[in-house]
N-ATPase, AtpR subunit (Roseovarius lutimaris), 99 residues
Amino acid sequence: MIAIDWTALVLGGASGLVMGGLFFVGLALGMRLALRSVSPVKLLTLSATLRIAALLGVGWVVIGQGGPWAALGYAIAFLMVRIIATTIARVGAPAGRAS
């Protein structure tokens, strides 16, 4: 039977929830700024680079400190936040007009 390290799993999950939230808040902010910008591609590229680097950097620390169970918790929590964020975005999007 596989021994599950619940402490590492929960700590990784907590880190994943925080980082997932920050990732999608950063995405929303980057999109809002890019839509008002003269050069949206540069702004979106910078936003994506910073968000991905932060997500991977914290993930690297979580794996280094907590091991594979923490990594699993981190990944599951990020995916849960992703599902929630995309659901909220889909619900909040205005309906298309029928011509």
Observations:
- Residues 21 and 27 are 10 Å apart (CA to CA).
- The first helix runs from residue 6 to 36.
